[in-house]
Amino acid sequence: MSQISRGLENVYIKTTSLTYIDGENGILRYGGYDIDDLVDHTTFEEVVYLMLYGDLPNKIQLQRIRVLLNEGYEIPQQVIDMIYGLPRDSDAVGMMETAFSALSSIYGSPWNKVTNRETAIKVIARASTVVTNVLRAKEGKKPRIPEPSDSFARSFLEASFNRTPSTEEVKAMDASLILYADHEVPASTTAALVTSSTLSDMYSCVVAALAALKGPLHGGAAEEAFKQFLEIGSPENTDQWFQKKIVEGKARLMGFGHRVYKTYDPRAKLFKRFAKQLSERNQEAKKYFEIAQKVEELGIQMFSQKHIFPNTDFYSGVVFYALGFPVYMFTSLFALSRTLGWTAHVIEYVEEQHRLIRPRALYVGPIRREVIPIELRG
Ligand SMILES: CC(=O)SCCNC(=O)CCNC(=O)[C@H](O)C(C)(C)COP(=O)(O)OP(=O)(O)OC[C@H]1O[C@@H](n2cnc3c(N)ncnc32)[C@H](O)[C@@H]1OP(=O)(O)O
Ligand SMILES: O=C([O-])CC(=O)C(=O)O
Q1: Which residue has the least CA distance to atom 9 on ligand 2?
Q2: Per-residue pLDDT tens for 314-358?
Q3: Are 272 and 200 within one domain?
Q4: How remote is the CA of residue 235 from the centroid of ligand 1, in Å?
Q5: Whole domain around residue 240: which residue ranges?
Q6: How far is the CA of 219 from the centre of ligand 1 (A)?
Q7: HEC string of the chain?
Q8: How much is the ipTM here?
Q9: pLDDT tens digits, one per residue of 209-267
Q10: Coiled-coil segments, which residues (predicted)?
């Protein structure tokens, strides 16, 4: 009898030099570098280089990445028109899917070892323009293309909000871009890999990944986690909410639990640090940070014996909210950063390990039946 692994748990689909996770000890490394070290001492652009070229860049290599990102922000007017042509209350990730499908029609090209990495950098730059304009379209603002600067995070914030962000805001945005950049082969990256295995183009891989990311069990959880804090409304309501909703109602605590981490997600600690810092200057964010801390405490009391702890989506929403993003944008912000991981993994797969991904399903239906003419069926 063939073995089935429900949810493909513990099935290895590829080897990787990109990301290492130790789920028992809560360790995450990109290319051997601890996530804390990268957040404290590098920028997103350096991590782009690390993931695509295998090590941190020197100054000249970093400058080249900046130039490529800065040159990549332009997207065709037809794609901008498509984003702004959708109803304003459309789902933000759905709008991204539409834009990336259009980009795949325009730019989708065959894989090529010489150009794959530069294509990935363009995909990342274009993702910034797409996400900025999804936000702006939904907010009823005019289109805007991120402007070249020495920081991808700053260009993105400036274009999104039409204002100069503070150094602290740029640092928090940059950190969140690094924290969400990759996580080995979660559902979205697996969807991208399946797509790449047919030798479909890189933009189509992003469309597949976006479709898988937006569900509430994966990238959609940051929005769902924050909606819990909104529903609680005030720190003193937390105990009652938790008792009614989670203990008695047996609802899943969103932003808790993980297929691989059986301890505290290392990214959640870092997001918590930025959430605390940013919320010190923002009363509303401070309220939600306090609520989140209380929910975390109760969640750990209730679930830690089952090895269920806060995941990366638990505090990221407080950071995004404090930066000024509406809740409906949280998954798109995750997607912006994860475009790096998706493209890096599909390149690794297509260049080094390519084979069509085609699993089997074990048939358990009736063995063989004769077709009865319709007039004789009961
Ligand atoms: C960026 C990311 O994608 S991180 C994940 C974001 N998702 C969320 O935060 C949504 C909430 N979390 C979850 O639903 C889960 O923890 C998942 C889907 C992320 C991973 O879970 P899986 O490995 O598939 O575990 P599974 O869903 O089989 O649950 C195992 C047990 O833990 C329980 N459990 C898992 N997560 C939670 C949770 N957040 N709240 C309450 N119970 C939970 C399940 O009810 C189940 O209990 P049982 O054995 O008594 O039936
Ligand atoms: O690894 C996973 O299954 C989900 C996750 O944390 C991520 O994609 O960042």
Answers
A1: 183
A2: 999 999 999 999 999 999 999 999 999 999 999 999 999 999 999
A3: no
A4: 25
A5: 221-323
A6: 13
A7: CCCCCHHHCCCCCCCCCCEEEECCCCEEEECCEEHHHHHHHCCHHHHHHHHHHCCCCCHHHHHHHHHHHHHHCCCCHHHHHHHHHCCCCCCHHHHHHHHHHHHHHHHCCCCCCCCHHHHHHHHHHHHHHHHHHHHHHHCCCCCCCCCCCCCHHHHHHHHHHCCCCCHHHHHHHHHHHHHCCCCCCCHHHHHHHHHHHCCCCHHHHHHHHHHHHCCCCCCCHHHHHHHHHHHHCCHHHHHHHHHHHHHHCCCCCCCECCCCCCCCCHHHHHHHHHHHHHHCCCHHHHHHHHHHHHHHHHHHHHHHHHCCCECCHHHHHHHHHHHCCCHHHHHHHHHHHHHHHHHHHHHHHHHHCCCCCCCCCCCCCCCCCCCCCHHHCC
A8: 0.98
A9: 999 999 999 999 999 999 999 999 999 999 999 999 999 999 999 999 999 999 999 99
A10: none
